[in-house]
Fold this protein.
Amino acid sequence: MNIKVIFLDIDDTFYDHSHSIFPASAIKGLNMAANEGIRIVIASGRNIALIKEIGADARLPVSAYIAANGAMVHDKTGKLLFDHAFKQEDMDYIFQECAKHNIGIQYINQEVNYCTIPLNEHIKKSCDDFKIPYPKYRPYQGERICQLFLFADNDEEAEMAYAFKFFTLHRFHPFCVDVFDADNNKGTAVRKYLEIEGISPNEAMAFGDANNDIQMLESVKYSVAMGNATDELKAVASYVTTPVYDNGIYNALVHFGIIKE
């Protein structure tokens, strides 16, 4: 096996939310892999500021960052390599529909991170659970946007289902939903990164736990779902390891012979 790069999700893959820690075995195993010349590329739903906020990059020799679910890709210094923004007509439509239902939108790019409604308990809860700062309130002012969250519960999402039929929604919290357009996900960013770096998908591995990792796992030969992953992700993975809190990353690296115990 000739693995040149590992794409690594953070939340509940590399970071154990149930214990609020990065498992020592995961840090050890990934650093051992890096010492063998394998690139470590973080691939998270978080933007780069929130990746650094949680300290994921401080524990690994990171070669690049796929951030905001593939919408922004940075080199190891944080320099933006390429991004994907929503079309302006799509932005206008989304904001119009959400305003009808009083659903808040958090909108993000390299410089902007705001919410269209004032802070409320649902926003606080979703941010607290992921240990990220609260977004500031400010009406949208027409910026080029790479990432959108809707602060909506299941009932509100169901109400919006028809209006959002041209977008993909991914619920990652009881009160918060990712919005993707047809051209953007972690998988598209992974494939573009591999193409730029001249690395074959047959030389790549990916770790994930949630449905927003599906396209990423489908884009590489060696795909690992955590034991705590969704059933949908496990179904597309080439290997299901133990949970994040039970040495999942380390055990998978051993299983594939990337490191030795």
